[in-house]
Design goal:
Helices cover 7% and strands 43% of the residues. β11 and β12 form a beta hairpin. The C terminus is likely disordered.
Protein backbone atom coordinates (compact mmCIF):
# COMPACT_ATOMS: atom_id res chain seq x y z
CA UNK A 1 0.00 0.00 0.00
CA UNK A 2 1.25 3.47 -0.85
CA UNK A 3 2.10 5.84 1.97
CA UNK A 4 1.19 8.92 -0.10
CA UNK A 5 -2.06 10.71 -0.78
CA UNK A 6 -3.32 13.79 -2.60
CA UNK A 7 -5.23 16.42 -0.62
CA UNK A 8 -7.15 19.40 -1.99
CA UNK A 9 -6.52 22.27 0.44
CA UNK A 10 -7.45 25.68 -1.04
CA UNK A 11 -5.72 28.83 0.13
CA UNK A 12 -8.86 30.88 0.60
CA UNK A 13 -10.43 30.84 -2.87
CA UNK A 14 -7.21 29.76 -4.61
CA UNK A 15 -6.98 26.08 -5.64
CA UNK A 16 -4.13 24.23 -3.95
CA UNK A 17 -3.08 20.56 -3.84
CA UNK A 18 -0.93 18.90 -1.19
CA UNK A 19 1.16 15.76 -1.69
CA UNK A 20 1.33 14.12 1.74
CA UNK A 21 3.21 11.16 3.19
CA UNK A 22 1.76 9.15 6.07
CA UNK A 23 4.18 10.64 8.61
CA UNK A 24 3.00 14.18 7.79
CA UNK A 25 5.74 15.19 5.34
CA UNK A 26 4.03 17.23 2.65
CA UNK A 27 4.55 19.36 -0.43
CA UNK A 28 2.07 22.12 -1.26
CA UNK A 29 1.38 23.17 -4.86
CA UNK A 30 -0.58 26.37 -5.37
CA UNK A 31 -1.90 25.42 -8.79
CA UNK A 32 -4.43 28.24 -8.68
CA UNK A 33 -1.61 30.78 -8.72
CA UNK A 34 1.35 30.05 -10.97
CA UNK A 35 1.68 26.42 -9.89
CA UNK A 36 3.60 27.91 -6.98
CA UNK A 37 5.75 25.67 -4.80
CA UNK A 38 4.09 26.99 -1.67
CA UNK A 39 5.24 24.68 1.10
CA UNK A 40 7.52 21.77 1.95
CA UNK A 41 7.34 20.40 5.46
CA UNK A 42 9.22 17.44 6.94
CA UNK A 43 9.23 15.84 10.39
CA UNK A 44 12.51 16.37 12.27
CA UNK A 45 13.79 15.53 15.71
CA UNK A 46 12.55 17.95 18.35
CA UNK A 47 15.69 19.67 19.65
CA UNK A 48 14.08 20.21 23.07
CA UNK A 49 12.74 16.67 23.39
CA UNK A 50 14.54 14.08 21.28
CA UNK A 51 11.79 11.52 21.89
CA UNK A 52 9.37 13.55 19.78
CA UNK A 53 9.36 15.13 16.34
CA UNK A 54 8.28 18.48 15.01
CA UNK A 55 7.58 19.81 11.51
CA UNK A 56 10.20 21.94 9.77
CA UNK A 57 9.27 24.32 6.93
CA UNK A 58 11.77 24.20 4.06
CA UNK A 59 10.05 26.60 1.64
CA UNK A 60 8.69 30.09 2.17
CA UNK A 61 5.07 30.18 1.09
CA UNK A 62 1.96 32.32 1.36
CA UNK A 63 0.02 31.54 4.55
CA UNK A 64 -3.26 33.14 3.48
CA UNK A 65 -4.91 34.65 0.42
CA UNK A 66 -4.80 38.33 1.53
CA UNK A 67 -1.03 38.10 2.00
CA UNK A 68 -0.63 36.52 -1.42
CA UNK A 69 -2.74 39.19 -3.11
CA UNK A 70 -0.75 41.93 -1.42
CA UNK A 71 2.85 40.83 -1.93
CA UNK A 72 2.90 38.30 -4.78
CA UNK A 73 3.73 40.88 -7.51
CA UNK A 74 7.00 41.54 -5.68
CA UNK A 75 7.80 38.03 -4.43
CA UNK A 76 6.49 35.61 -7.10
CA UNK A 77 7.26 32.96 -4.50
CA UNK A 78 7.57 29.43 -5.85
CA UNK A 79 6.20 30.15 -9.33
CA UNK A 80 7.36 28.90 -12.71
CA UNK A 81 8.65 31.83 -14.74
CA UNK A 82 7.82 31.36 -18.40
CA UNK A 83 8.44 32.28 -21.23
CA UNK A 84 11.11 34.48 -19.64
CA UNK A 85 12.54 34.70 -16.11
CA UNK A 86 13.69 37.95 -14.55
CA UNK A 87 13.59 41.30 -16.27
CA UNK A 88 12.95 41.98 -19.94
CA UNK A 89 14.42 45.43 -20.45
CA UNK A 90 11.91 48.26 -20.73
CA UNK A 91 9.13 45.74 -21.41
CA UNK A 92 10.00 45.13 -25.05
CA UNK A 93 12.15 42.86 -27.20
CA UNK A 94 13.10 42.35 -30.82
CA UNK A 95 12.82 38.96 -32.49
CA UNK A 96 13.47 38.18 -36.17
CA UNK A 97 13.42 41.86 -37.05
CA UNK A 98 10.18 42.72 -35.25
CA UNK A 99 9.78 44.60 -31.97
CA UNK A 100 7.24 43.30 -29.45
CA UNK A 101 5.78 45.38 -26.61
CA UNK A 102 5.24 43.63 -23.29
CA UNK A 103 3.50 44.92 -20.16
CA UNK A 104 5.42 46.78 -17.46
CA UNK A 105 4.03 44.66 -14.61
CA UNK A 106 6.03 46.06 -11.66
CA UNK A 107 5.88 49.47 -10.02
CA UNK A 108 9.57 49.77 -9.13
CA UNK A 109 11.11 49.48 -12.62
CA UNK A 110 10.11 50.05 -16.26
CA UNK A 111 10.59 46.39 -17.18
CA UNK A 112 8.48 43.28 -17.73
CA UNK A 113 9.09 40.63 -15.08
CA UNK A 114 8.87 36.83 -14.98
CA UNK A 115 6.71 36.02 -18.00
CA UNK A 116 2.97 35.42 -18.08
CA UNK A 117 2.01 32.29 -16.13
CA UNK A 118 3.21 33.17 -12.62
CA UNK A 119 -0.29 34.25 -11.53
CA UNK A 120 -2.40 32.00 -13.77
CA UNK A 121 -4.36 28.93 -12.72
CA UNK A 122 -2.81 25.63 -13.77
CA UNK A 123 -4.96 22.59 -14.52
CA UNK A 124 -4.52 19.47 -12.41
CA UNK A 125 -3.99 16.54 -14.79
CA UNK A 126 -3.06 13.45 -12.79
CA UNK A 127 -1.75 11.91 -9.58
CA UNK A 128 0.13 8.63 -9.22
CA UNK A 129 1.45 7.04 -6.05
CA UNK A 130 4.21 4.45 -5.70
CA UNK A 131 5.63 2.75 -2.62
CA UNK A 132 8.28 5.41 -2.04
CA UNK A 133 7.10 8.46 -4.02
CA UNK A 134 4.15 10.20 -5.63
CA UNK A 135 3.83 12.34 -8.74
CA UNK A 136 1.39 15.08 -9.72
CA UNK A 137 1.09 16.72 -13.15
CA UNK A 138 -0.21 20.22 -13.95
CA UNK A 139 -0.60 22.08 -17.25
CA UNK A 140 -1.18 25.64 -18.41
CA UNK A 141 -1.80 26.95 -21.92
CA UNK A 142 -0.63 30.28 -23.32
CA UNK A 143 -2.91 30.95 -26.31
CA UNK A 144 -0.66 33.53 -27.95
CA UNK A 145 -3.50 36.04 -28.35
CA UNK A 146 -1.42 38.82 -26.77
CA UNK A 147 0.38 40.83 -29.48
CA UNK A 148 3.39 41.23 -27.20
CA UNK A 149 4.10 37.49 -27.33
CA UNK A 150 2.05 35.88 -30.12
CA UNK A 151 3.62 32.44 -29.68
CA UNK A 152 1.18 29.85 -28.26
CA UNK A 153 2.58 27.11 -26.07
CA UNK A 154 1.61 24.50 -23.50
CA UNK A 155 3.57 24.28 -20.25
CA UNK A 156 3.59 21.12 -18.12
CA UNK A 157 4.95 20.60 -14.60
CA UNK A 158 5.60 17.07 -13.36
CA UNK A 159 6.33 17.10 -9.63
CA UNK A 160 7.65 14.01 -7.82
CA UNK A 161 7.76 13.94 -4.01
CA UNK A 162 9.37 11.39 -1.68
CA UNK A 163 9.17 13.35 1.57
CA UNK A 164 12.85 14.26 1.88
CA UNK A 165 13.23 15.14 -1.81
CA UNK A 166 11.38 16.81 -4.66
CA UNK A 167 12.13 16.70 -8.39
CA UNK A 168 10.38 18.87 -10.95
CA UNK A 169 10.32 18.36 -14.69
CA UNK A 170 9.19 21.37 -16.72
CA UNK A 171 8.09 20.85 -20.30
CA UNK A 172 7.12 23.44 -22.89
CA UNK A 173 5.65 22.65 -26.31
CA UNK A 174 5.36 25.13 -29.16
CA UNK A 175 1.80 24.66 -30.42
CA UNK A 176 2.04 27.51 -32.93
CA UNK A 177 3.23 27.57 -36.53
CA UNK A 178 6.35 29.74 -36.16
CA UNK A 179 9.61 29.46 -34.24
CA UNK A 180 9.22 30.56 -30.61
CA UNK A 181 11.90 32.39 -28.57
CA UNK A 182 12.01 30.97 -25.07
CA UNK A 183 13.66 31.03 -21.67
CA UNK A 184 12.37 30.00 -18.26
CA UNK A 185 13.04 29.54 -14.57
CA UNK A 186 11.53 28.89 -11.15
CA UNK A 187 11.34 31.11 -8.05
CA UNK A 188 11.48 28.99 -4.86
CA UNK A 189 12.46 30.54 -1.54
CA UNK A 190 14.26 28.08 0.76
CA UNK A 191 14.48 28.20 4.54
CA UNK A 192 15.97 26.10 7.32
CA UNK A 193 13.96 27.71 10.09
CA UNK A 194 16.41 30.45 11.06
CA UNK A 195 18.07 33.59 9.72
CA UNK A 196 19.97 32.92 6.51
CA UNK A 197 22.89 34.89 7.99
CA UNK A 198 23.69 31.74 10.01
CA UNK A 199 23.60 29.40 7.01
CA UNK A 200 26.57 28.17 5.02
CA UNK A 201 26.06 28.32 1.24
CA UNK A 202 28.15 26.63 -1.42
CA UNK A 203 27.83 27.38 -5.14
CA UNK A 204 29.22 25.59 -8.19
CA UNK A 205 31.96 27.19 -10.26
CA UNK A 206 30.30 30.08 -12.07
CA UNK A 207 30.61 33.65 -13.31
CA UNK A 208 28.66 36.67 -12.16
CA UNK A 209 26.58 38.51 -14.77
CA UNK A 210 27.33 42.24 -14.55
CA UNK A 211 24.42 44.68 -14.64
CA UNK A 212 23.89 48.23 -15.87
CA UNK A 213 22.19 51.00 -13.88
CA UNK A 214 18.77 49.61 -14.85
CA UNK A 215 19.72 46.17 -13.47
CA UNK A 216 19.91 44.67 -16.95
CA UNK A 217 22.82 42.33 -17.86
CA UNK A 218 25.53 44.07 -19.87
CA UNK A 219 26.93 40.93 -21.49
CA UNK A 220 30.04 41.12 -19.33
CA UNK A 221 30.92 38.57 -16.67
CA UNK A 222 33.42 38.22 -13.88
CA UNK A 223 34.61 35.20 -11.96
CA UNK A 224 32.94 34.99 -8.56
CA UNK A 225 34.33 32.53 -6.04
CA UNK A 226 32.74 34.01 -2.90
CA UNK A 227 30.79 30.86 -2.15
CA UNK A 228 32.63 28.28 -4.24
CA UNK A 229 34.28 26.67 -1.20
CA UNK A 230 31.25 27.24 1.02
CA UNK A 231 30.94 29.98 3.62
CA UNK A 232 28.37 31.67 5.83
CA UNK A 233 26.07 34.15 4.14
CA UNK A 234 26.35 36.50 7.14
CA UNK A 235 24.63 39.84 6.48
CA UNK A 236 25.49 39.94 2.77
CA UNK A 237 22.78 41.17 0.41
CA UNK A 238 22.64 39.12 -2.79
CA UNK A 239 20.59 39.80 -5.89
CA UNK A 240 22.79 38.30 -8.57
CA UNK A 241 22.73 35.91 -11.50
CA UNK A 242 25.45 33.27 -11.49
CA UNK A 243 26.07 31.77 -14.92
CA UNK A 244 27.38 28.37 -16.01
CA UNK A 245 27.40 29.50 -19.64
CA UNK A 246 31.16 29.13 -20.14
CA UNK A 247 30.90 25.37 -19.61
CA UNK A 248 27.92 25.14 -21.95
CA UNK A 249 29.84 26.94 -24.71
CA UNK A 250 32.70 24.47 -24.33
CA UNK A 251 30.29 21.54 -24.52
CA UNK A 252 28.67 22.91 -27.66
CA UNK A 253 32.11 22.95 -29.28
CA UNK A 254 32.54 19.30 -28.30
CA UNK A 255 29.09 18.31 -29.53
CA UNK A 256 27.78 17.37 -26.09
CA UNK A 257 24.32 18.22 -24.81
CA UNK A 258 24.70 17.60 -21.07
CA UNK A 259 26.68 18.78 -18.06
CA UNK A 260 26.52 17.10 -14.68
CA UNK A 261 23.88 18.58 -12.42
CA UNK A 262 24.86 21.89 -10.86
CA UNK A 263 24.40 21.95 -7.08
CA UNK A 264 23.85 24.66 -4.48
CA UNK A 265 24.03 23.61 -0.83
CA UNK A 266 22.61 25.33 2.24
CA UNK A 267 23.59 24.12 5.69
CA UNK A 268 22.75 24.98 9.28
CA UNK A 269 24.01 23.33 12.46
CA UNK A 270 21.36 20.62 12.21
CA UNK A 271 20.14 20.44 8.61
CA UNK A 272 21.23 20.78 5.00
CA UNK A 273 19.58 21.26 1.62
CA UNK A 274 20.98 20.16 -1.73
CA UNK A 275 19.39 22.20 -4.54
CA UNK A 276 20.27 20.86 -7.97
CA UNK A 277 19.49 21.63 -11.59
CA UNK A 278 20.26 19.85 -14.82
CA UNK A 279 22.62 22.05 -16.82
CA UNK A 280 23.86 21.78 -20.38
CA UNK A 281 22.82 22.86 -23.85
CA UNK A 282 19.27 24.30 -23.65
CA UNK A 283 19.04 23.52 -19.94
CA UNK A 284 19.18 25.43 -16.63
CA UNK A 285 22.52 27.21 -17.07
CA UNK A 286 22.07 30.10 -14.63
CA UNK A 287 21.21 30.50 -10.95
CA UNK A 288 19.57 33.69 -9.69
CA UNK A 289 20.02 34.21 -5.95
CA UNK A 290 18.14 36.79 -3.90
CA UNK A 291 18.13 37.52 -0.18
CA UNK A 292 14.84 39.19 0.88
CA UNK A 293 14.74 41.87 3.60
CA UNK A 294 13.49 39.64 6.44
CA UNK A 295 16.40 37.23 5.79
CA UNK A 296 14.36 34.22 6.86
CA UNK A 297 14.59 32.62 3.41
CA UNK A 298 16.69 32.79 0.26
CA UNK A 299 15.54 32.56 -3.35
CA UNK A 300 17.65 30.09 -5.34
CA UNK A 301 16.24 30.14 -8.85
CA UNK A 302 17.21 27.80 -11.69
CA UNK A 303 17.08 29.65 -15.01
CA UNK A 304 17.92 28.74 -18.59
CA UNK A 305 19.71 32.05 -19.13
CA UNK A 306 20.49 35.32 -17.41
CA UNK A 307 17.65 37.90 -17.38
CA UNK A 308 16.68 39.75 -20.58
CA UNK A 309 17.39 36.74 -22.81
CA UNK A 310 14.67 37.83 -25.26
CA UNK A 311 16.88 40.81 -26.08
CA UNK A 312 20.49 39.64 -25.72
CA UNK A 313 19.79 36.07 -26.98
CA UNK A 314 22.59 34.50 -24.89
CA UNK A 315 21.21 31.11 -23.99
CA UNK A 316 17.90 31.89 -25.69
CA UNK A 317 16.15 28.70 -26.79
CA UNK A 318 14.43 28.64 -30.17
CA UNK A 319 11.64 26.05 -30.32
CA UNK A 320 10.32 25.10 -33.79
CA UNK A 321 6.59 24.46 -34.32
CA UNK A 322 5.40 21.21 -32.78
CA UNK A 323 8.57 20.62 -30.78
CA UNK A 324 9.03 20.64 -27.03
CA UNK A 325 11.85 21.14 -24.53
CA UNK A 326 12.25 19.63 -21.08
CA UNK A 327 14.08 20.99 -18.01
CA UNK A 328 14.68 19.40 -14.61
CA UNK A 329 15.64 20.56 -11.13
CA UNK A 330 15.02 19.48 -7.56
CA UNK A 331 16.04 19.61 -3.93
CA UNK A 332 16.89 17.16 -1.17
CA UNK A 333 16.79 17.55 2.63
CA UNK A 334 19.18 16.02 5.16
CA UNK A 335 18.88 16.03 8.91
CA UNK A 336 21.91 16.12 11.29
CA UNK A 337 25.09 18.16 10.98
CA UNK A 338 28.00 17.22 8.79
CA UNK A 339 26.24 15.15 6.13
CA UNK A 340 28.15 15.43 2.91
CA UNK A 341 26.12 16.24 -0.18
Amino acid sequence: MSQFKLIFRPLGTIPCFVLQRDDGAEFEILNGFGCGLNGWRVPVENQQNTRTSTMLDLLYGYKDEPTLRKISPDTNAGCRLTPFPGRTAYAKFTWQGKTYELVNNVSWAPHALHGFLQNKEWEFESFESEADSCTAVFTCDWPGAFAGFPFPFRATNTITFTGESVSITSTVKNVGNTDMPYSEGWHPYFTLGEKIDNLTMKLPSCSLALLDKADIPTGEFKEDSRFESGRKINDEFINDCFCLEKDVTELKANGSDFINNAHVSLESDNYSLDIWQKAGVEQYNAIQIYTPPDRMSIAIEPMTAEPDALNHHRGLIVIPPGEERTFTFGFRFHEKTGIEL
